[in-house]
Amino acid sequence: MSEKNQNTIIEVEHVSKLYGLNRQEAVRMMEAGGEKDEVHKKTGVTVGLWDINLTIPKGKIFVIIGLSGSGKSTLVRCFNRLNRPSAGHVRFEGRDLAEFNKQELLEFRRTKISMVFQSFGLMSHRDVLGNVSYGLEVRGMSREERERRAMEVIHMVGLDGWEKQNCGSLSGGMRQRVGIARALANDPEVLLMDEPFSALDPLVRRDMQFELLQIQRKLGKTVIFITHDIDEAFKLGDMVAIMRDGKIVQVDTPEEMSAHPADEYVQAFINSADKAKVLTARNIMITPDALVRESDGAERAIRVMSRNALSTAYVVDDELRLRGILTIRDALKARQEGLTIAGMIQTDVPTTGPDTLVADIMPIAAEAPYPIGVVDDDGQLMGIVTKANVLSSLI
Asked: How far apart are CA 102 and CA 330, in angstroms?
């Protein structure tokens, strides 16, 4: 198996979905460059999807974003074959879903892929435990085993103590937690989430986004998440696909999409996003002009600062790990008194990781007397972030 196939869980190849009778004429018009509205007006055929090609990686959050009618929900329902494509192929771990017989498709939906809906879809006559364990009950698991498994995921989504409560008495956020727990109880490889948080108030929605990230990082599930909110897409997505009129416009990481939008439509989406919640330290950091080694003498440190017209220098060790900051004042004192610069370094330098969001850097930058050092997991200096970098990134 190729490396691509090992890292891919779903492949979508030239998938189209058309609704209506005169599909042959609609296909001819679309192949000639026609648009969705024009095709519907002339043929009565609705183009739900047109020539979709996607590769969805394992263990990541893949977000599909678009306005109402863009085709995002239609596409996601092809992944569990609730929608059968009019043309093209959807492959799960290399196998075409169209090849599944009735029993295989049933088993696929029970064990490999689960769906979380915006409307929760809970059973009002069952309590939380009963809802979460339902899929396991259908699979024929013993009551003791299914309730044990259900309690594990109830704990994971923060509903301890609520397992015997009727779902009708729960808040919207708690009901959505039940929906997520029910989907996770089957231990699927893929979680499909169709605008699951859009009905929640902003504070609850933010909490649910954070909890989803925590659960996904802990379990390593593949999550395919639909939204119309660009901030939500960029916050959650390892990869983001933007759809318009049944077509894919661009697929990229949030950072790359922000830096290199495919067209004006994508740019308009991005312009509505809070860039502080998209860009990271990696995107805005610069290389420090004044950089010296801990083993350098005071004379060299002074020369480096003088040449760059700066009053401070960043000090690293021989492995380029950040040791601190040396001021021109302390360098002059070291030269005058014959001291090494190692003993003059200010070590309380603000630092951050390369993947820290600009939104999280802003309060640090506002208080820090020096630019923020960007370091990797080994403490190696990758760059610095100045207040000017932070402000200019938001424009």
From this structure: 77
Phi, psi for 382 (deg, rounded to 5): -100, -25
The torsion region of residue 338 among left (phi > 0), alpha (psi -120 to 50) and beta comes to: left
Among 316, 305, 292, residue whose Cα is nearest residue 375: 316
Round to whole Å and give the CA distance between 57 and 11. Answer: 9
Which residues neighbour 240 within 8 Å (Cβ) at sequence distance 6 or greater?
62, 63, 64, 65, 233, 234, 251, 252, 253, 254, 257
Q: What is the pLDDT of residue 359?
A: 84
d(CA 60, CA 97): 21
Place of tokens 């040449």: 307
**C-alpha distances in angstroms, 129 versus 148, 165, 178, 253?**
10, 8, 9, 37
Identify the residue whose tokens are 């986004």.
209
Q: Distance between CA atoms of 201 and 198, rounded to whole angstroms?
A: 8
Tokens of 375: 């370091």
CA atoms within 13 A on the CB side of 270: 25
- What strand order describes the sheet that includes 87-92? 46-57, 8-19, 87-92, 95-96
User: Alpha-carbon distance 133 to 70, whole Å?
Assistant: 34
pLDDT tens profile 48-62: 999 999 999 999 999
Q: What is the pLDDT confidence band of residue 224, given thresholds at 50, 70 and 90?
A: very high
Q: Which residues contact 245 (CB under 8 A, 6 or more apart)?
A: 35, 36, 37, 47, 50, 69, 70, 71
Helix (H, G, I), strand (E, B), or coil: what is residue 248? strand
- 129-160: pLDDT as tens digits: 999 998 888 888 899 999 999 999 999 888 88
Helix (H, G, I), strand (E, B) or coil at 106: helix
Tell me which residue has tokens 């064990």.
111
Q: How confident is the model at residue 2 (pLDDT cuts 50, 70, 90)?
A: very low
Domains, the chain, with CATH or none:
56-274 (3.40.50.300), 282-393 (3.10.580.10)
